[in-house]
Amino acid sequence: MTMTVHPIQPVPLAEGLLARWRRIPVSVIVDLAPDRQIDPGVRPLRPADLQPALFGRAVTALCDPPDFGSVLRSLEFVEPGNVLMIAAGGHAGHAMIGDVLGGHLHRKGAAGVVCDGAIRDTAGLAVMTGLSVYSRSVNPRGPTGAAKGEVNVAVDIGGCTVNPGDLIIGDGDGLAALTPANLESLIDRAEAKLTLEAEWTARLAAGDKVGEIFGLP
User: Fold this and answer.
1) Closest of 45, 32, 26 to residue 167, by C-alpha
2) What is the CATH classification number for the domain harbouring 141?
3) pLDDT in tens, 136-180
């Protein structure tokens, strides 16, 4: 594999639509679109109560570990609010990113980084306020090359195909990746599910019977 950088022009997304999606937790998304879930083995760096919510459009880097050249090149394309998606095939032998490049993402205003592979320098990454970090594993051993990979290409992250410009949503439960088409087709159902869950909670708090609420025989 050599280094290839692909041109990309993400589909514009309406701010009003994005604002609606900011209210939707990953659990609701996965209930409605299980194929858009990223493998739960890709976990948040921080405990659930300390993990910043992740919400931003994907910039993708396809790696050929232990080479991390695509990660380096992808940094040129990260804009404020983006999420760097590193496809390392679950490789645990070498970290693809640490606090040096993570710090650069933080200074650029990135929303976060998701690595289907290993990261390192977790103590440094954990204190970067507002940078939401997810990975499959941690390894202090770094990469050993910087000449291979692809940038701005469709990648497999935890069994989910992620394209540049997809919307990445993450919380303490895990991650989901939504295409522009998903955003339009699912938002009404997602909001309805959120409303229904609020109704269930209110009825349980009011003392209604579980069987009545959930229609048990």
Assistant:
1) 26
2) 3.50.30.40
3) 999 999 999 999 999 999 999 999 999 999 999 999 999 999 999
Instruction: Please check whether residue 30 lies inside any domain of the structure.
Output: yes
Do the domain assignments include residue 94?
Answer: yes
Task: Tell me the backbone φ, ψ of residue 11, rounded to 5 degrees.
Answer: -65, 130
Which amino acids are annotated as binding site for Mg(2+), given as ranges?
121
Domain range holding 78? Answer: 13-178
Work out how many domains the chain is built from and give that number: 1
Q: Residues annotated as binding site for substrate? A: 98-101, 120
201 within domain boundaries: no
Annotated binding-site ranges: 98-101, 120-121
Note the residue count of the chain: 217
